[in-house]
Amino acid sequence: MNYALVLLIVLNLSVLAWNVLLAPAHNRPEIPLTLPNIPELVRVDKVPGEAVYSSQLAPSQSSCFTIGPYASQQAALLVQEKINNYGLAVKMRAIRSMETLNFLVYIPAFASATEAQKVIEDMKRFKVTDAVIINEGAYQNAISLGLFTNLTLAKRQTEYVRYLGYDARFTEQKAAREVFWLDYDEPLGSNTPVPAWSKAIDASTNVQKIPRACQS
Questions:
Q1: Which of 29, 50, 62, 71 could disulfide-link to 55, CB 3.0 to 4.6 Å?
Q2: Closest Cα to residue 215, out of 180, 187, 185, 191?
Q3: Nearest partner of 133 among 115, 154, 151, 150, judged by Cα
Q4: Is 170 in the same domain as 79?
Q5: Could you tell me if 117 and 160 lie in one domain?
Q6: Overall pTM surpassing 0.70 (yes/no)
Q7: pLDDT tens digit sequence for 181-204
Q8: What is the pLDDT of residues 68-103, one digit of tens each?
């Protein structure tokens, strides 16, 4: 073995031992584990006073919309939450309106059910077989020729029966229903995807996004 190499290794180990173990403490500068003046981190569940965009407070131009109707209040609440979490001001409105249920095609009431039945029997020669007597309510002793959800089909059935010589008519059947609308503001040109959120939350919802005047 080369004695010079062995001597060099011994010298290096001696210097290392002196620096690490034997050198005076003031010659070994301490490295701080943390930087000074850093505030302690504090966990919070919700940031107070989150900024919400509103056309009344915005320094730039805004677009304001109303979207609806939502038949389900729960669906409207979920969409409202998404809009609010997006940082936009939003308000829900409940409106009670009349909803079209269907269209009744009928022949007006007769003096008795017996007379109405005679007309039904007479119509069978034209293969009108789905006519029935209405036994109670505002249309008692009238003849029902069918309920239709489509206005075009209701009109077609009415015109056909009138063509056969009977006094057929149709009327719109309605019921009261509460629906929900959401009013929200956004920066001009933002195109916030609220309709897409609505469809994702309730696929059966058919909402309209309508521009409205922004509040100044």
A1: 62
A2: 185
A3: 115
A4: no
A5: yes
A6: no
A7: 999 999 999 999 999 999 999 998
A8: 999 999 999 999 999 999 999 999 999 998 888 999
